């Protein structure tokens, strides 16, 4: 649900509950994310700001926040794509070479001692980057309230 649909839903519920437009700013403010913008609390209590202007501010801030999240995500993706991590190809080893490496206690890929393939420090670098990317992607998807759509300041109870 984008922010405009959310505001329409609040208006519809406020109509059904018989909430006056004077109280709708506070009601809407109570149902948006607390960290959206602290100025909205002040605006929700300001009698000089109409409900329509307040909803337009809420929509604009939500859209701007969503756009900023998308830009941060894009920058992180770009950084991950441009970060060069040496990726070693798995060498084609003969049975003789494999046996020699096993006898010496060396890992086939990096040919270093002291670990098995699942504990290879060279492979962990790549795994950690992929894990960070997956974590970042899931955070971005779960915190989306707005879609990047133009704001519409005419959100009265008829919509």
From TrEMBL:
Residues 140-159 have a biased composition (Polar residues). One of its GO terms (molecular function) is nucleic acid binding. Residues 136-159 are annotated as: Disordered. This is Uu.00g006010.m01.CDS01. It comes from Anthostomella pinea.
